[in-house]
């Protein structure tokens, strides 16, 4: 297992040139659905990008809402609690889809808002995407998900580590190792 983790970490970059075919076949099996479509809460464990906004939050997590098999879309919440001890919780709904790309999958994230029936073709409870992001999947298994953060003009903006393990336990050591190799 440790050797597999090291191989994945070394090859987790954007280029797949020079990677043996056997390893490519193994990497294709990375399945973000194991976390994305999990009915358990998923917690943001760590982010590499410097962001003052993130320092305001005590906990960022996502709870499962539903799965639409026709659209192959998972609906979850994205919630946060503040560092100042406030009991106020902020939340928004998100949609998640997985797009297969030649080397690794991409997670399509839509931030959703209620239409309140104000659009002629929408009902009062329908949600509309007001922003969409494409996050490259660097690693995925049943207990952790490492995503590339959206950057500006194709630049890398670090990555984020999501886990099903409730804080303070956090993700397995293998996931942490891969995260720090990014």
Automatic annotation (TrEMBL):
<protein>
    <recommendedName>
        <fullName>Lipocalin/cytosolic fatty-acid binding domain-containing protein</fullName>
    </recommendedName>
</protein>
<dbReference type="Pfam" id="PF02098">
    <property type="entry name" value="His_binding"/>
</dbReference>
<dbReference type="GO" id="GO:0030682">
    <property type="term" value="P:symbiont-mediated perturbation of host defenses"/>
</dbReference>
<dbReference type="InterPro" id="IPR002970">
    <property type="entry name" value="Tick_his-bd"/>
</dbReference>
<dbReference type="InterPro" id="IPR012674">
    <property type="entry name" value="Calycin"/>
</dbReference>
<dbReference type="GO" id="GO:0043176">
    <property type="term" value="F:amine binding"/>
</dbReference>
């Amino acid at each position: 297992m440790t050797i597999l983790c090291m191989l994945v970490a070394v090859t987790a970059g954007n280029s797949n040139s020079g990677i043996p075919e056997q390893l490519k076949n193994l990497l294709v099996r990375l399945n973000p659905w194991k976390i994305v479509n999990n009915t358990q809460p998923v917690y943001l464990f760590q982010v590499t990008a410097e962001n003052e906004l993130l320092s305001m939050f005590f906990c960022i997590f996502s709870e499962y809402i539903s799965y639409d098999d026709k659209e192959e879309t998972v609906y979850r919440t994205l919630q946060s609690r503040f560092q100042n001890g406030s009991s106020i919780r902020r939340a928004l709904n998100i949609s998640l889809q997985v797009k297969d790309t030649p080397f690794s999958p991409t997670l399509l994230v839509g931030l959703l808002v209620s239409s309140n029936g104000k659009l002629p073709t929408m009902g009062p409870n329908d949600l509309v995407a007001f922003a969409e992001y494409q996050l490259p999947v660097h690693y995925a298994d049943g207990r952790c998900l490492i995503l590339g953060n959206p950057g500006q003009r194709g630049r890398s903006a670090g990555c984020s580590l999501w886990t099903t393990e409730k804080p303070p336990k956090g993700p397995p050591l293998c996931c942490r190792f891969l995260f720090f190799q990014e």
